Structure formats: structure tokens, C-alpha cells
């Protein structure tokens, strides 16, 4: 009888261990995020000629959750004579009219697109002023969009700066080390003319002439 009770007890223990729905320690991984949509920070833009605005984009998965770290967005303009867009999503108005900014992202073989309708009014200025910093080594503003044949005047204060265009074709002459003076340059040619102050690291600017 004692042996029979022992066997019954063992059987009950085995049933108790196996009847609790144990999954054997297997952990089900969360579903893999699949690119479902890309959402720009704006759906429309209204710019004056010469004005800029940055479009940021969020990638979302099948659960409408943000896909962190998504990168590799491409930006193009349907009418670059009206509005241009940089690889970083910075849109610049150039002439009165409308354009569509097209955005695309491919992630793990899935491609999604979005658009931003852009309206530009007015005309590019023919003059602009850039201040070379006295409290910081910078140019303000550090970007100017200008009509062809227009003039930019750099204002230099008590801190010495210069303006060097490098070897960019069509750029005007640079400006040597200058203090307490205003110096103007005329932009007769179309181009994107990046410049720098060679006296100070990371003191850069650009003049865009369509």
C-alpha cells in the first residue's frame, strides 16, 4: 500500500508540473517594425523669395509608432526654379510660383513617399547685408539668396575677419583681413557660393544666386 501511495504522489506531481501552461521558456519576440508611412513636419509651405524653412520627417511603422533612427530621406523639388531643397530638407524660395517638395525613404526594402505643397511669393532681393561677428566668430545671416547681379555687403567690426570663396567658378574676389569697415561684392554669375573666414574655424556662409 505504501508503494501505491508513493506512485500516486509522483503521478500527481508530474501532472502538477506539466499542467500549468508552461511554454518551455520560449520567448516570443516583438513583431519587426515595417515602414508604413513617412510624415513631414508640414504639409504646406508659404515662403517669400529668399526665405528658407526646414522640413523634418518622421517614419512610422505598421502600429503607427515612430521608427527611431530612420535615415536616408531624399528630397527633390518639382520646380527648382521656384523652390530648391537641400539634402537636409531645407527649402529655399527663389521665385514666385508653386512647387512640390517630394520626400522618399526606403527602409528594409520598403519605400514610402510624401509631398509638401510649396508656394513662393515675391522676388529675390538685389542687396543683402552680412555681419561678421564681434561677440562670436560667425556670419549673420550665414545664408543669402540673391538675384543675379545683386550685391552683398559684409560689415566688419572690431574683430578681424576675412571672406574666402576658394576656387568656386564665377565667385567674386574674396575679402582680405578686415576690421571696422564695410566691403561689398557683386554676384554677376549664377551659383552656390560657399565662403569661409580662414582665421576662425567653422565660420562659414553661402550666397545662392539662381
Summarize the structure.
With 210 residues, the chain is mainly β. It has one helix spanning 2-18, and strands at residues 35-40, 44-48, 52-54, 57-61, 74-77, 83-85, 90-93, 95-107, 110-123, 127-132, 139-140, 143-145, 150-156, 161-163, 175-178, 181-187, 191-196, 204-209.
Please tag this protein with its features.
210 residues, Immunoglobulin-like, 2 domains, four-stranded mixed beta sheet, 18 strands
How do the strands and helices of this protein lay out in sequence?
Layout: H1 2-18, E1 35-40, E2 44-48, E3 52-54, E4 57-61, E5 74-77, E6 83-85, E7 90-93, E8 95-107, E9 110-123, E10 127-132, E11 139-140, E12 143-145, E13 150-156, E14 161-163, E15 175-178, E16 181-187, E17 191-196, E18 204-209
Parallel strand pairs: 2-9, 10-13, 12-18
Antiparallel strand pairs: 1-4, 3-7, 5-8, 6-7, 8-9, 10-11, 13-16, 14-15, 17-18
Task: Tell me what you see in this structure.
- With 210 residues, the protein is mostly beta strands.
- It has 2 domains: 35-123, Sandwich (Immunoglobulin-like), CATH 2.60.40.1080; 127-209, Immunoglobulin-like, CATH 2.60.40.
- It is 8% helix and 48% strand.
- It contains 1 helix and 18 strands.
- Strand 17 and strand 18 form a beta hairpin.
- The termini are far apart.
Amino acid at each position: 500500500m505504501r508503494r501505491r501511495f508513493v506512485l500516486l504522489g509522483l503521478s500527481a506531481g508530474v501532472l502538477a508540473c506539466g499542467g500549468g501552461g508552461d511554454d518551455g521558456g520560449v520567448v516570443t519576440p516583438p513583431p519587426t517594425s515595417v515602414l508604413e508611412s513617412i510624415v513631414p513636419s508640414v504639409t504646406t509651405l508659404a515662403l517669400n523669395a529668399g526665405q528658407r524653412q526646414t522640413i523634418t520627417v518622421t517614419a512610422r511603422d505598421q502600429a503607427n509608432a515612430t521608427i527611431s533612427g530612420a535615415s536616408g530621406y531624399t528630397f527633390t523639388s518639382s520646380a527648382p526654379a521656384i523652390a530648391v531643397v537641400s539634402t537636409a530638407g531645407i527649402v529655399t524660395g527663389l521665385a514666385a510660383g508653386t512647387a512640390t517638395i517630394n520626400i522618399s525613404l526606403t527602409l528594409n526594402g520598403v519605400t514610402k513617399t510624401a509631398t509638401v505643397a510649396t508656394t513662393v511669393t515675391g522676388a529675390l532681393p538685389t542687396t543683402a547685408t552680412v555681419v561678421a561677428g564681434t561677440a562670436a566668430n560667425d556670419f549673420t545671416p550665414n545664408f543669402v539668396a540673391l538675384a543675379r547681379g545683386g550685391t552683398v555687403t559684409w560689415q566688419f567690426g572690431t574683430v578681424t575677419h576675412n571672406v574666402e570663396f576658394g576656387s568656386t567658378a564665377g565667385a567674386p574676389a574674396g575679402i582680405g583681413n578686415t576690421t571696422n569697415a564695410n566691403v561689398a561684392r557683386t554676384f554677376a554669375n549664377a551659383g552656390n557660393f560657399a565662403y569661409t573666414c580662414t582665421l576662425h574655424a567653422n565660420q562659414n556662409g553661402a550666397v545662392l544666386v539662381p
